[in-house]
Specification:
The protein is built from twelve helices and eleven strands. The longest helix is centred in the first third of the chain and has 20 residues. Helix 1 crosses helix 7, helix 6 crosses helix 12 and helix 8 packs across helix 12. The chain has a domain of about 240 residues: 3-Layer(aba) Sandwich (Rossmann fold).
Length: about 350
C-alpha cells in the first residue's frame, strides 16, 4: 500500500481518481482550498467507496506555499489534478495562467523536497493540437499546441503549466519522475451537482438548446481518465511520458444529440435535432460569454490518438456513446434536468 496525494479532490476528475485509489487499497490524501469542503467531499465519495480513515484532507492553495509541505509528507506518488478554471473568460488571462503554472511548480518543488517518487500531471489534449494547420492524420503525444492569441486563457494555462513542469523536471527535478495525462473532453457520471464545464454541454443539449453548434471534440469517460492516471502513476514505462486520453475520433454536437435521443427516449425530448448555422452561434456569443469561448472551435475537426496509452499501459477506454450517455443519466439521477 502506497500513500498518494491527489490535488483538487473536490473536483470532477480528482474525486474519481480518489475513488479508484481507495478501491485499489491505497492510503490517500487530498488537498482542498478550504477544509470546510471535507464533509461535502466525503459525502460525494461515499456513493462509490466509503473513505474511512484511509482518506486525509489538507488545506492548500495553488497560489500559496502554505500547506504543501504537510500535504506531500510521506507520499510516494502525487496525482496533480488541481488547476484554476473559469466558466467565462477572465478579465486578464494571467488570472488563470499564473496560478496554473506557478501552482504546478509549487507542487513539483514540494514533491522533490519530500522525495516523492513520481508526479502524474493532468494536462489536456488542448496542449497537443491547437495552432496547427488542418490535417487528416490524428495528433499524438509528440505534438505541442502553438500558443497564439486565438487560444482561450484556460488552454494557454494548461499548455504553459505542462511546459513548465517538463522544464522543471529536466533542470531542477533531481530524480523526481513525471508522467502526464492529456485528456480530451471529459464526460461520464457526475458524483455531485458540482461538475466540470464539459458536463455543461450535455446539460445544455438536454435542456433544449435551439440547435447544436457546429463543433467537434474528442470524448473520454472520467472513469477511464482516472484509470489512466493510476496506470501512469506506477508503470515503469510511464516515466517521462505523455499519454493522450481519448476514446476515439472526434464527434459533433449534432451527433451527440442524436445519440442522446436514441438512448434516453422521453428524457431527451428537449434535445435539439438541428445544427445551428455559424452566424447564429456568433450572434448568441455577443450575449453569452460561455458561447463566446466556442467560437474558435466552429467547424474545426481535430483528432488525437490514444494508441500509446493502449499499447504501453494496457489502457482500454469506454466508447464515446457510453461516456456521453452516462453523463446525461447522472444529470437525471441528481435531478439536474427537468423531466
Amino acid at each position: 500500500m502506497s500513500k498518494v496525494l491527489v490535488t483538487g479532490g473536490s473536483g470532477f476528475v480528482g474525486a474519481h481518481v480518489i475513488l479508484q485509489l481507495l478501491g485499489a487499497g491505497q492510503q490517500v490524501s487530498t488537498t482542498v482550498r478550504n477544509l470546510n469542503r471535507e464533509s461535502s467531499v466525503r459525502a460525494m465519495l461515499q456513493a462509490g467507496q466509503e473513505p474511512g480513515d484511509r482518506l486525509a484532507f489538507f488545506a492548500a492553495d495553488l497560489e500559496s506555499d502554505a500547506g504543501w509541505r504537510e500535504a506531500v509528507a510521506g507520499c510516494e506518488y502525487i496525482v496533480h489534478v488541481a488547476s484554476p478554471i473559469s466558466a467565462i473568460a477572465p478579465k486578464h488571462e494571467n488570472d488563470l495562467i499564473v496560478p496554473a503554472r506557478e501552482g504546478t511548480l509549487r507542487v513539483l518543488r514540494a514533491a522533490r523536497d519530500a522525495n516523492v517518487k513520481r508526479v502524474v500531471l493532468t494536462s489536456t489534449c488542448g496542449a497537443v493540437y491547437y495552432g496547427h494547420p488542418p490535417r487528416n492524420t490524428p495528433f499524438d503525444e509528440t505534438s505541442w499546441t502553438i500558443v497564439n492569441d486565438e487560444l482561450t486563457a484556460y488552454v494557454k494555462s494548461k499548455v504553459l503549466a505542462e511546459r513548465s513542469a517538463w522544464d522543471f523536471i529536466s533542470t531542477e527535478g533531481r530524480g523526481l519522475e513525471l508522467s502526464v495525462v492529456n485528456p480530451a473532453g471529459i464526460f461520464g457520471p457526475i458524483l455531485a451537482p458540482d461538475y466540470s464545464s464539459s458536463i455543461e454541454l450535455i446539460k445544455r443539449l438536454m435542456s433544449g438548446m435551439p440547435g447544436a453548434p457546429r463543433i467537434y471534440f474528442g470524448v473520454v469517460d472520467v472513469r477511464d481518465v482516472a484509470d489512466l492516471h493510476l496506470r501512469a502513476m506506477t508503470h515503469p514505462l510511464a516515466k517521462g511520458e505523455r499519454f493522450i486520453a481519448v476514446s476515439g475520433d472526434s464527434i459533433s454536437m449534432v451527433e451527440i444529440a442524436k445519440m442522446l435521443r436514441a438512448r434516453l427516449g422521453a428524457s431527451a425530448r428537449r434535445v435539439p435535432r438541428l445544427q445551428l448555422p455559424d452566424w447564429m452561434v456568433r450572434l448568441a456569443a455577443r450575449r453569452d460569454p460561455s458561447v463566446r469561448q466556442l467560437l474558435p472551435l466552429l467547424g474545426k475537426i481535430r483528432n488525437a490518438t490514444s494508441e500509446k496509452a493502449r499499447r504501453v499501459l494496457g489502457w482500454s477506454p469506454r466508447s464515446n456513446e457510453e461516456a456521453l450517455v452516462s453523463t446525461a443519466q447522472s444529470l437525471l439521477q441528481f435531478g439536474l434536468m427537468q423531466q
